Amino acid sequence: MFRSRFHTIVLAALGVVALSTASLASDAAGSGADHSGVTQAAASGGWLEVLLFYIAAAAACVSALGVCYSRNIVRMAVWLFGALGSVALLYFLLAANFIAAIQLIVYAGGTLILLVFGVMLTSKSPWARFEARKIEVFGATVVSGTLFACLSLLLTRAHWATTDSAVAGTAMSALGHSLLTTYLVPFELAGVLLMIVMVGAAHLARQDK
Amino acid sequence: MEHIGLTHYLVVAAVLFCCGIFTMTTKRNAIGILIGVELVLNSTGINLVAFDRYMGPGRLDGQVVAIFLIVLAAAETALAVGICINVYKNLSTVDVDAASQLRG
Predict the structure, then answer these.
(1) Phi and psi (nearest 5°) for B29?
(2) What is the mean pLDDT of each run of 10 residues along chain B (104 residues)?
(3) Which of A89, A159, A161, B26 would staple A56 via disulfide (CB 3.0–4.6 Å)?
């Protein structure tokens, strides 16, 4: 039984990756003629960027589908770890060094550990399963599949006014300067929010009523 | 050799978003629903950073908003796990169908 479900997961992942690759290839063929002066100007990266992008994108898609299809909550957390790591790799490819590091430290290091602690504190046995009804799975598949089809159709047909020059990695000093000048009020609000959340979480999880 | 553009990243983000929606709607476990929310937030982060990289490099607006997104996700997870533990204390399960009363 496990083996057949594993095959289903692998087949679904391959289908999604093939679908996205095909749609992107047709998009590249179709939109190349429209604004060739802009997009063909500077090809940043080269073959290594393309290879790394496809590895990270395939890992992200397979991990996300693993989160969808695994019934065991611990397995879901492990698949989520894979998804977070590959999203961090995508951030590195987008030249956002600091965001990638934050993703690894806060998400993969903090949030995921919190989730695993939540799983350990709230499950009766590590093999506890929560089965959804067939009709619910069918409805969710229809909704999310239709959403993905519409989104990918929309995304591959849209023409973004992109500036496609090669960029260097983001300087952290520029990011900090932006945080403390333009985004000072949201920055302070985020600090107040974290304070409130810390007090609230400690209050919620305290021992005696 | 194909060139990696904005659309590639947006399609990956769309895959993550739809998987997150599927996870949120089919899981009975409250922590499982939380994992679906994390997937959706991650797809949003990819979108923000990709638009920052391809639409206005050097302006850093998308990256700053992505930092706020990560902060909000961490705060939301901390509170939600606290609520899940409280629900488990009261009902000895985290099945979201069992938690149908507002009264504790």
Answers:
(1) -80, 135
(2) 82 95 91 93 94 83 93 93 88 82 69
(3) A89
pLDDT tens-digit readout, A79-96: 999 999 999 999 999 989
Contact B64 A178 (CB under 8 A): yes
Q: Please name every residue paired with A72 in a beta bridge, in sequence order, or none if there are none.
A: A129
How far is it, in rounded angstroms, from Cα A72 to Cα A119?
11
C-beta separation of B5 from A162 below 8 A: yes
pTM of this prediction? 0.81
Q: Hey, is the C-beta of A92 within 8 angstroms of any chain B C-beta?
A: no
3-state secondary structure of B95: strand
Yes or no, beta carbons of B32 and A99 under 8 Å apart: no
The helix/strand/coil state of B93 is: coil
Pick the CATH number of A2-28+42-130 from 3.40.720.10, 3.30.160.20, 3.10.20.90, 1.20.120.1200: 1.20.120.1200
Which residue in chain B has the smallest CA separation from A32?
Answer: B3
Contacts of B89 in chain A (CB under 8 A): none
